[in-house]
Write a structure and sequence with these properties.
alpha+beta, Immunoglobulin-like, three-stranded antiparallel beta sheet
């Protein structure tokens, strides 16, 4: 008598089903693409671009870090309203007059990122810096949102 390891029906057939599902997805994406050659630019018209954003907090501040390479600080708008931080702007295309790109992978155009802040902040003390394509927004926490140390007396 030989021993054969048990395989549940779901796992024994899944590799072949996965391959078919992958093929189906690839075929669907092929037919969803626009019919002209510049796919990236046309996709941008409908989806825009979204810069990467990280949000951190410590005991005193909430810090937002946004990647905006190739932008001028004058083209970046930062606003705070009702606990929502919004960073918006527009990155211009780098191609010159009469030039056409052979390949374009960098996004350009308008963007808008809004993120709900995890705690109340002092809106009058918000500061932002822009260096090496990175915007760092420092939002000081409101006094009532900061952690408090309470002394406990033992009787």
């Amino acid at each position: 008598m030989s021993l054969i390891r048990y395989q549940s029906p779901e796992t024994s057939l899944s590799p072949s089903f996965d391959r078919w599902a992958t093929l189906r997805d690839e075929m669907n994406s092929l037919f969803e693409l626009p019919s002209t050659g510049n796919f990236t630019r046309q996709a941008q018209l409908f989806s825009g671009w979204t810069p990467a954003l990280d949000l951190y907090q410590n005991s005193d501040n909430v810090i937002a870090v946004v990647e905006l390479p190739g932008m001028r600080k004058e083209d970046i708008d930062i606003s705070l309203h009702d606990g929502m931080l919004t960073i918006a702007g527009e990155r211009q295309s780098s191609s010159g007059e009469g030039e056409s790109a052979e390949r374009s992978e960098r996004f350009s155009g308008k963007f808008r990122r809004s993120i709900s802040l995890p705690t109340r902040v002092e809106s009058g003390k918000v500061s932002a810096t822009y260096k090496d394509g990175i915007v760092t927004v420092t939002l000081p926490k409101a006094e009532e949102a900061k952690p408090k140390k309470v002394e406990v007396t033992i009787e």
